Amino acid sequence: MKKYTLALVLFAVLPIVSADAAYQYESRNGSYYSARPVKTSTYKKSARRSGGYTNTITNNFYYTGQPVQRSAYSAYNYDDGYVAAPAKKTTKKTSYSSQMRKYFLAHPFFQPLQGKFGSVTDVSYTQNRFNFDIIDGSTLNIDKASTTYRQATPKGAVGISGKQETSQFLVKEDFSYGISDTLAIIGMAQYDKTKVQLNDWSGGEPGDSSSSSGLNIFGIGLQNRFVDNDKWIASIAGFFQHQKDTANTFIGEIKAGYKIDRTTLYGLGRFGYSDLIEGDTYGALVDADDGDWLMLSYNTNIKDVVYVEGGIGAFAVLNKYFTLNGELVYGHYDWHSQLNIKGAIGWQPGDMFALNLYASTSLYDSAKEKTKTYMNYDVNPNGYPVVDGSPVFTDSKLLYTTGDYKIKDYNEWKIGIQAIFYF
How far apart are CA 320 and CA 63, in angstroms? Predict the structure, then answer.
């Protein structure tokens, strides 16, 4: 029975809420990307002039221009993304106009340039919940000292209902380094605290809950932005993640976007494969201190889990300080499919730091009306199964019941904030 203590398996690996991010990956994945500076002379788009300065936003970059007086030998071109504009002569002396390019760190294609470091600290809270009906069950006597050891009751109707709620608080850190201007390496670690509750029983029984916490996920990956010009941008990424005592996961992601002045429209695809390293069942588990446990399983008798996502998104620069991002993602997550929407607003006061507040929720989930398997391990039972009007296994100290339950509704949501550094 120990194999079922995997109850929380893939809660952090298979995104409770698609996307992320981030993320997570992110995230659903926590990963983040960056656009390479684009050589362009189209600085006059969305331009405004004030007090001798010309400020523009082109291809999601913010430029500030200031006329400065310099000698003919003082033109410059920084490799860290600050680019000088062409020299401009006057009749009396040589004058150059400098323009400074600002990267928006919340951009979905952002990644550090060669020799630069990026950091994303993601703090989030996520929850999934559903109401369910216990349909039927059969009880097996597994107390070796009992006179009826290994006897089982016929499968019969149960007819009780309850509510499951799983919540998770997590802190995820992604740290990246630019190997080149188009290739970056990422290391990641995640601390999470997960709580599972079963309550609102129709028979009036008290609810119960269990929780676990720890530094549970470690990973490493590569990101390659293989296209970036005036109109198009595209990247590909691959990651390996290890979830402690649960699974090894491989993740692939591809994104492609089209730039329209202040906005990038993009599509994305993700693929994840998880190899379960301990046990063959996962789901929502409440594990009591006295040894009792009840699991509402999502899948049983498996060794690996596959998920696939596809979606569309848009990233827009509002002004020098604020950005907006939205994604609509449809994914198949092993035992159910989901349509999810995500929105984010970013604030970037300077070149090296940004905050990105995001939220997501499921719009549709195929989990509703699905029938799955539950398992109940009962130590020192207070009640016994009844067959033909009489209780059985009354001398047993250990009973195991399994049967079917039906999910009546299903909902997931997530809210989080990312602190992004670039140096």
Answer: 9
Give the model's pLDDT for residue 95: 43
CA 72 to chain centre: 52
Q: What is the pLDDT of residue 101?
A: 56
Q: What is the pLDDT of residues 29-84, one digit of tens each?
A: 222 223 333 333 323 333 333 343 444 454 554 444 443 333 222 222 222 222 33
User: What percent of the chain has a predicted confidence (pLDDT) above 70?
Assistant: 76
DSSP letter string over 101-128? EE--TT-TT----BT-EEEEEEEEEEEE
Distances (CA, A) of 32 to 113, 333, 414: 13, 22, 18
Read off the tokens for 298: 């999502």
Among candidate residues 394, 423, 418, the one with its CA nearest the CA of residue 22: 418
pLDDT confidence of residue 50: 38
pTM equals 0.79
Those residues with Cβ within 8 angstroms of residue 379's Cβ, 6 or more apart along the chain or in another chain: 290, 291, 292, 397, 398
The two three-digit tokens of residue 4, written as one number: 């079922």
Rounded Cα gap, residues 365 and 92, in angstroms: 70
Could you read off the pLDDT of 182-203 as tens digits, one per residue? 999 999 999 999 999 999 999 8
Could you tell me which of 23, 37, 418 has the C-alpha nearest to residue 223?
A: 23
Cα 164 from Cα 131, distance rounded (Å): 6
Going 412 to 418 to 214 to 178, the CA torsion angle's sign is positive
Regions in the chain scoring below 70 on pLDDT: 1-101
Sign of CA dihedral 394, 398, 404, 408: positive
The H-assigned helical ranges of 279-336 are: none
Asked if residues 155 and 180 have their Cβ atoms less than 8 Å apart, the reply is: no
Q: Three-state DSSP class for 244?
A: coil
Q: What pLDDT, on a 0 to 100 scale, did the predictor assign at position 404? A: 98
Q: What pLDDT does 279 receive?
A: 87
H/E element, 397: none
Using CA atoms, how far residue 388 sits from 203, 295, 385, in Å, is 21, 27, 10
Helix (H) or strand (E) holding 370: none
Q: Work out the angle at residue 316's Cα, subtended by the Cα atoms of residues 313 and 321, and round it to the nearest 5 degrees.
A: 140
d(Cα 328, Cα 320) in Å, to the nearest integer? 26
